[in-house]
Amino acid sequence: MTNSIEEISKADYILAIGTNTTESHPIIGLEVKKAIRNGTGLAVADPRKTEVASMAHRHMQLKSGSDIALLNGLAHVIIEEGLYAKEFVEERTEDFEAFKETVSKYTPECVEEITGVPVDILKEVARNYAQAKNAPILYTMGITQHICGTHNVLAVANLSMLCGHIGKESSGVNPLRGQNNVQGACDMGALPNVFTAYQKVGMENVQAKYANAWNVDALPDKVGINIGQMMERAGSNVKAMYIMGENPVLSDPDSNHVAHALESLDFLVVQDIFLTETARLADVVLPATSFAEKDGTFTNTERRVQRVRKAIDPVGNAMPDWEIICNLSSVMGYPMNYSSAKDIFDEISTVTPSYAGMSYERLDNGGLQWPCPTEDHPGTPYLHKDKFARGLGKFSAVDYVPPAEQPDAEYPMILSTGRRHFHYHTGTMTRRTGTLDKYYNEESLEINEIDAQKLGINNGDKVKVTSRRGSVEVKACVGDTVPEGMVFTSFHFSEVAINKVTNSQVDPVSNIPEFKVCAVRVEKYSAKNVS
Question: Among 141-145, 148-152, 267-271, 408-412, where is mean pLDDT lowest?
């Protein structure tokens, strides 16, 4: 997030796109609810009638995968009506004219045809967002999990810059992270192309810094491969994998292929706190500890680095992740002589510019938001105050790209996936509590009542969902939460392993799969259509 969570409640207007905030991020959802009580306007763009959409002053129920057209349409109205922040655009940005030319094609009438959002609603939201004093954009994986996910994010940034809603309080571009330390994992270089703080692996000065810190002569300077590429190459030039805290057999698209890929390996190691569906395929399972059994730090969605303190000793033979890795490395010939998580954080501070001013001593007094470059720096509540990290903010002329799969005669409906309020990710933890299952213990497929009537499906009926990759059976939930032609479910339940069905086509820039759109056929379940 460019801005802080607490700033949301002080905004004058909020645009939430591709995010089911109150269910998927309930703590941030509380800030949105507080903002509404304070008189803040809220516009939500989502194909589903979610809880947060029901609270919105305007719900733009766009067609799944048409986000760029919508965002460009909003920009078109703002430019045509002279509502954009002319001084900000002139002084702090570049490439505006190319962007202006691109969005000129996205007239409200054209956008209505692509997205289904009526002209009058598009204009109203554009005017309210542009004329607000402070207006954040909130988004999640409804924006990123498309074959054009990177361009979706660029379109969000374009709109924010166009109105000068960045570099100040209660504004900005704010991706709400999907897991408790996904921001921290990325900050620490858990990506194939960077070291910590997004320092690129190919830069000589960065290479030299890390080689010196780790007491080696040289480090590889080539970009590694991502998860999807690993799965494609499993059994050929990828012979072994080491998977930590991840359950790709349920969480990755086209999961039948994922399971086959993992079974093709010569050797698979899984390090986790439970025997997940992925761990059951492993040759060796290494027992890790939960958050309550270890010391360290998490970095949350607002870039806040916070201490995690051990509450109980590790159970059984479990060990903290860092100790397992250090022991393995030492056995393999490279001694890692850290004695504690603090030792590791001290090293992080020396090689990571945005964390340079942090220490356990400072964090003991409360979290700090990066960048925090010096020991007397208070941390940074919001980014880009006086200038962008690259100098000028760059407008990116991006065009609407249709989803990789379109409905046809054989697969006439669109499936989108997401999360439920009471569960999390593949249910590895939440489905073991018992308590949460009391509130939501069985998955269902949301289907529009008109589609259900045409298919002879009643509420509670078992249905079969089939794509070009596989099929699953699930109970139908008939209503108006999703529009005609669309169905929705989550990936929390192993009994309904929906990622057997989803499309593994990826964004060519980020390599994130298109979880949010795939073509499917839905039919009432019977013994005759069992796979």
Answer: 141-145
CA–CA separation, 7 vs 171, rounded Å?
Answer: 8
CATH number of 413-529: 2.40.40.20
Residues in the chain: 531
The verdict on domain 5-176 having CATH code 2.60.120.10 is no
Q: Round to whole Å and give the CA distance between 325 and 30.
A: 38
pLDDT one-digit tens code per residue, 31-88? 999 999 999 999 999 999 999 999 999 999 999 999 999 999 999 999 999 999 999 9
Mean pLDDT of the chain: 92
The torsion angles phi and psi of 263, rounded to 5 degrees, stand at -70, -20
Spatial contact of 451 and 20, defined as CB atoms under 8 Å apart = no
Is 531's pLDDT higher than 50? no
Cα separation, 449 vs 282, in Å, equals 43
Cis-peptide into 320, omega within 30 deg? no
What DSSP assignment string belongs to 53-71?
A: HHH-SEEE-PPTT-HHHHH
Rounded to whole angstroms, how far apart are CA atoms 406 and 513?
A: 16
Query: What is the Cα 86 distance to its own chain's centre?
Result: 32
Q: Strand pairing of 413-418 and 486-490?
A: parallel
Residue in 472, 495, 477 with CA at minimum distance from that of residue 487 = 477
Radius of gyration of the chain (CA): 24
**177-223+288-375 is classed CATH 3.40.50.300:** no
> How sure is the predictor about 176, in pLDDT bands with cuts at 50, 70 and 90?
very high
**pLDDT over 90 for what percent of the chain?**
80
